[in-house]
Design goal:
globular; alpha/beta; pyruvate-formate lyase- activating enzyme; 5-stranded antiparallel beta sheet
Length: 456
């Protein structure tokens, strides 16, 4: 089965599950994980599917999952109405749910059956102890048939969302917030680790909300608190989960995927100093303007974001590796003034955000729409383009300055691609390294090995 993944790391996780599922085991064709974050993202996978249709032979199909394929996690009945340019191939395209439901699918990819979407585990009992986790993981491993499609493994710890940000379709596509049990998460990591793999990536739609009843909890909210940029609402137990993973696994590299800022407690900041949690932190910021954040229905303001970035920059790592900070940014949201954009620009500049995942606001005129697409004061496309170019130029400058600051410093790199003449991988603070810019001093040069060296 060929595959193509568009969009986020959650799509990568579910692609792994689908390709290991019993349902696709005897089928041929192409699996596509679709994305709807913008109209541009929609067009990319639709173009790919149209092109791939020309290559499909008898008995093959294109299997489409991802946010373009489902609603509330289930295959969308009106898919071909939303994407009429694919309707002529209805017999060749199969629209899939978010995840395979298969009692015999590979245990490497299974979700906790005790915490299915929509169910909640809210008791305040301590995290489960893990004395028997290793034995259970090894026993399951003996029965598993796995296809590992990435050098690192994406581990879903939380799914879906109920925050209803005005620019986002995810809340409609993936449904309400749920989370996996700590025991189940560790079991999956141990299975992966037992095969000799070295890195996991904790991912989710709003993974820092782990253990919260929902991602829109405002019962402790007050306007005075948010004006001062302080934290509000119930605390998640994300820090406890990270500690539990550290205590019950020994996999050397633990990365954390995109984090929503409002649930990052001081306890989380403290644990991010641990050596096995790699110093690359990606915040879903969206804007530096309090006015725009409010219009987006985000749960924090610009002052809170500044304080969080300052705390992150001040983390004293055990390994003394410099921290890389990435950020999601939307430019040209309805009503964004020059002053609002300047707030965002200065946030990126002042806190040296080292990599941007930035894109212009999309009104979503293709397929399903978002509330902000109907807001007044839509920003002209030429203004969006000018602001995007300015912000991306700043982001590239920050990125290059960060890379330059790391030259001839000792870094660890996980080898992800290796031939006789070529290798490539990523450092712990997420700098891409190869034989062109990295001098290996010692370590395991085989694929999935870790080497120590210096950036040239």
């Amino acid at each position: 089965m060929q595959y193509k993944v568009f969009g986020c790391k959650v799509n990568k996780y579910y692609t792994d599950r689908w390709l290991n599922s019993q349902y696709l085991a005897d089928k041929t064709g192409t699996f596509v994980a679709s994305c709807v974050v913008t109209d541009s993202a929609k067009r990319k996978w639709v173009r790919f599917v149209k092109k791939e249709l020309r290559n499909i032979t008898n008995n093959q199909k294109i299997y489409i999952s991802g946010c373009g394929a489902f609603k509330d996690g289930k295959a969308q009945d009106n898919f071909f109405e939303l994407y009429p340019e694919l309707a002529h191939a209805e017999d060749t395209i199969e629209v899939l749910d978010e995840a395979p439901i298969n009692p015999q699918e590979s245990t490497t990819q299974h979700l906790s059956q005790s915490l299915l979407p929509g169910e909640k585990q809210l008791q305040s009992s301590p995290l489960p102890l893990g004395e028997e986790l290793g034995a259970k993981a090894i026993e399951k491993l003996k029965q598993a048939q796995k296809t590992q499609i990435y050098t690192k493994k994406f581990i879903l710890i939380q799914g879906w969302c109920d925050s209803f940000c005005t620019f986002c379709l995810t809340v409609v596509k993936r449904g309400r917030h749920y989370y996996r049990s700590a025991e189940d998460i560790v079991e999956e990591i141990l299975e992966f680790e037992s095969e000799g793999w070295k890195e996991v990536v904790l991912t989710g739609v709003n993974l820092s909300a782990w253990w919260l009843e929902n991602t829109h909890d405002i019962k402790n909210f007050s306007s005075d608190v948010i004006k001062n940029g302080e934290q509000w609402g119930n605390k998640s137990r994300f820090a406890e989960l990270l500690r539990y993973i550290l205590d019950n696994t020994s996999i050397p590299r633990i990365r954390i995927s995109s984090l929503w800022p409002e649930f990052i407690t001081d306890e989380v900041i403290t644990i991010l100093a641990e050596e096995r949690i790699y110093p690359h932190f990606h915040f879903s910021i969206q804007s530096g303007s309090s006015n725009i954040l409010k219009s987006m229905a985000r749960h924090y303001d610009g002052e809170y974001m500044k304080k969080l970035l300052k705390k992150t920059r001040n983390i004293k790592r055990e390994d003394r590796v410099d921290i890389g900070i990435w950020a999601d940014i939307i430019v040209g949201f309805p009503g964004e003034s020059e002053e609002d954009f300047t707030d965002t620009y200065n946030l990126v500049k002042d806190y040296k955000i080292t990599k941007l995942h930035a894109f212009p606001f999309s009104a979503h005129t293709m397929g399903e729409s978002v509330p902000a697409g109907k807001f007044k004061q839509q920003v002209p496309e030429n203004t969006k383009k000018e602001r995007m170019n300015s912000l991306l130029e700043l982001g590239e400058q920050n990125r290059q300055e960060f890379i330059d600051s790391q030259r001839w410093k000792s870094l660890k790199v996980l080898i992800e691609k290796k031939t006789w003449e070529y290798f490539s991988g990523w450092s712990e603070n997420y700098i891409e390294c190869s034989q062109d810019n990295f001098e290996v001093i010692w370590g395991d040069m085989k694929k999935n090995g870790i080497v120590v060296g210096k950036l040239k």
